[in-house]
Amino acid sequence: MTAYHTVFGSLNNYEKGTIEIINDNPKYYVFSNVFEVASKARPYEKIAVARNLEYVIEAIRAEGTSPWMACAHDEFCVVMDGEVRVEYVKLDDPDSVAPANKDGTVLVEGEPKGRKMGTIKLKRGHQALLPKGAAYRFVASRPSVMIQQTIKGDLTVEKWAEICYH
After folding, report:
1. What is the pLDDT of residue 24?
2. What is the pTM of this model?
3. What's the rounded Cα separation, in Å, for the pair 24 and 127?
4. Which sign does the torsion angle of CA 85, 75, 146, 69 carry?
5. Residue 146 and residue 158: Cα distance in Å, rounded?
6. Start-to-end C-alpha separation, the chain
7. Which one, out of 8, 40, 74, 99, has a CA that is 20 to 30 A from the CA of 1?
């Protein structure tokens, strides 16, 4: 039996992996490393690292305080490295911030109008829902890495040629 040793990557210590294609053409596959992508990203830049139809997984470098954001649909985030606090506000008028026909994350202009809902503290492997109808922002006291599932929107940055192995 082969012994495997699991090594978790981090922003400061990651290795490029490989994929083994069993029975297909490798040209149909590309992959990227979220830690490498985040190491070269601006804070809270939302860089698509995976795509499935209109859905995307975005790699995010969390550092400092993000702007307030919202979405017309549920999103979720997972902390891959570091610690991130998520602050929530239940929007008084969510459609005026993130209209129902708008896909992906939108920026909230100024301070969100609504009732504070609370905060969630996330560490490596923790996940948080970013619910429809709420504004949220991230706070990280040191550089951290998250992935966020959403629908491709105006804030999604696509750098496929720069970030993917072919």
Report:
1. 87
2. 0.90
3. 33
4. negative
5. 17
6. 31
7. 8
